[in-house]
Amino acid sequence: MKLVAVSKFHPNEDIIEAYDAGQRRFGENRPQEFCKKVQELPKDIEWHFIGHLQTNKLKMVLPYASLVQSVDTQHLLDAVNEWGRDNGKVINVLLELHIGAEETKQGFVEEDILDILFRAESYRNIRFCGLMGMATHTDCEEDIRADFCRISSFMDYLKDLFPEYEDFKELSIGMSEDWHLALEYGATIVRIGTAIFGPRA
To answer: C or N terminus of the chain, fewer CB within 10 Å?
Structure first.
């Protein structure tokens, strides 16, 4: 299991404290802040971009991100692939599945992801590494479990359907409030912010 310390809105001093304690994976969700921190912090940090990424901000993120966890639209996917082609780079991505009840959440539905993976060979500058999802924001454990069960089952289905995609193995679910449940459903990546850094200022 990989722990991504979600450092968004936290100062470099907080990140260095976690770094000195041994943490090497950090996640940001705003391109400008992401790009600035990459320049200022140790070069062996593995940076994940975890927020909604606008296509006009790709140059702030794609040169530096080890993994873009939040590819949530066909338009963004096409733009990332085009940027990778133009810059001679293969971009590691997770496809975001919309699993929460909130209409405001981003993401694909299952049929969209199936269609993308059936056409995966046309995305020569993208490496599909798995799925990401955000559970419903609720105190109801039953609802959270239902969301995690849905994405976990779909992940298993995709791995069976596309065994040739050996890199498609990451399941990024679980945050500070529900990571312990996410582990029960096969999470390989958890995104922890508040439990590490405390509430943001």
So the answer is: C
